[in-house]
């Protein structure tokens, strides 16, 4: 199952190690994450970490982009490895997780 998540909506507070929100985000570690950016590209990789500003690091990332501006257009892909996606560039974020994890993630968006 796929769940939309807005990591920039997670506020870490002063005591980041004991925050329940941090605990929920930790459960996402190593889950497959699909991140879209403003220029139309998508990155698929294993969620590695997020910082207080909402920048995301993906491991074993693959970039997907359209080869043409017309629709439907074939997608081109290339392997990138470890990448950082700035929060200012991100347009969408989806996590591949179980139903129970989806329910838990819904509270991150409040």
TrEMBL record:
SUPFAM superfamilies in the record: Sm-like ribonucleoproteins (SSF50182)
InterPro entries recorded: LSM_dom_sf, LSMD1_Sm, Sm_dom_euk/arc, snRNP_SmB/NAA38-like
Record-linked Pfam families: LSM (PF01423)
Superkingdom of the source species: Eukaryota
Residue stretches making up the Sm domain: 23-95
Cellular compartments per GO CC: NatC complex
Protein name per UniProt: Sm domain-containing protein
Source organism (scientific name): Nelumbo nucifera
């Amino acid at each position: 199952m796929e769940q939309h998540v807005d990591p920039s909506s997670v506020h870490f507070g002063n005591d980041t190690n004991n925050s329940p929100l941090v605990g929920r985000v930790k459960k996402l570690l190593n889950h497959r994450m699909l991140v879209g950016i403003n220029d139309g590209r998508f990155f698929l990789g294993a969620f590695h970490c997020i910082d207080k500003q909402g920048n995301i690091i993906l491991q074993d990332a693959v970039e997907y982009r359209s080869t043409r501006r017309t629709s439907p257009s074939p997608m081109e892909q290339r392997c990138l490895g470890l990448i950082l996606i700035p929060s200012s560039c991100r347009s969408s974020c989806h996590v591949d997780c179980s139903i129970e994890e989806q329910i838990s993630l819904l509270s991150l968006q409040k």
